[in-house]
Amino acid sequence: MHDFAFMIHPLDVNDIYRKFPKARIMPDKLIEKAMSLCPPFFVSDITGIKSQYNETGGMFVACPLTARQMVEMPEQTVLNKIIQTGKYAEKMGAKVLGLGAMTSVVGDAGITVAKNLNIPVTTGNSYTVYTALEGMKRAAELVGIKWQQAEIVVIGATGSIGSVCTRILSKECKYLTLVARDEAKLEKLAGKIYYEDGLAVRTSTQIDQVLSQADLVLAVSSAVTEIIDPQKLKTGAVVCDVARPRSISKTVAREREDVLVIEGGLIELPGDVDFHFNFGYPPKLALACMAETILLAMENLFESYTLGRELTIGQVNRIGELAQKHGFKLAGLRSFERPVEEGKIARVRACRMNDLNARAI
User: Fold this and answer.
1) What is the pLDDT of residues 124-143, one digit of tens each?
2) Does residue 325 sit in helix, strand or coil?
3) Contact status, residue 165 vs residue 133, Cβ threshold 8 Å
4) Do residues 225 and 243 lie in contact, with contact meaning Cβ atoms separated by under 8 Å?
5) CA–CA separation, 136 vs 130, rounded Å?
6) Can you give the three-state secondary structure of 149-180, one letter per residue?
7) What CATH architecture applies to the domain 128-265+333-360?
8) Where in this chain does the record put each Quinate/shikimate 5-dehydrogenase/glutamyl-tRNA reductase domain (predicted)?
9) Quick one: pLDDT at residue 282?
10) For the segment 42-51, what is each residue's pLDDT rounded down to a tens digit?
């Protein structure tokens, strides 16, 4: 049963080696070049997804381009490869296609891809937003941050995920700083938030200048390199890194015991789930973008749910309601693909309290 297909791609050559270990004997650039010449291919079946209302199954299909190639190659070339992969999923019987990782941000964020296929397409960004905010709020409470009063920085704020995140947060929080590369887009978003909610948000194009004051950092940038310097983070801060590739280095786990980094959008699926493929997460856990695709199949809602860069708050709330109906739930907090230990949370909380006490003296 292939009700849905989810498109994946290698983030870097290490992902290629995971699938084809014998390829390690070849230079990285040669491997990338060889993969780019390959046609799309079937990766594995996805089975056992079952709620009290319905059950479904699907498959992974691979677009053989790395994240770096998707940024550096001509946009139309990349789009053609994504469309080719979508047509392959369609041929394999999929009724809805989810775009994973960089395939969801190339060009117009899925609109052109959908126009060239006979099945609906989703980027999964609505459920990604819902779970990112849910995870950030949960982590904030655990380390003693009153998130409604916290200094919150959103990195990648003008993107499709970042902009709707900030609009939702602006209805609940008082102190928001928006970070992105394009100053004009930042000002436009800030104006929209002020019009909707009367909240005057700060904007910046310089990440390092705003990190030191941030209690909560939501990273939703589409950059292909790590852009958050661990040394700039505030003691006791929580970073929710939704970006893929990551926005923050694993070195933060070694260098900053006083900071909590969590992965956003990791979902526990209902049923006896088997991906028949190791893509880096424990059994039954999937990224929210993939989970949205599965939710559409579970509901027999075969429509292009989340496309383009203008998400609505209504879309986010609706997919959240469907997730609750079918028993999809946010996995326990995870950091760099490992569960966050209670001891880590306690240490960050203690560091935060000590820092606050020191500042009060």
Assistant:
1) 999 999 999 999 999 999 99
2) helix
3) yes
4) no
5) 10
6) HCEEEEECCCCHHHHHHHHHHCCCCCEEEEEC
7) 3-Layer(aba) Sandwich (3.40)
8) 142-254
9) 83
10) 999 999 999 9
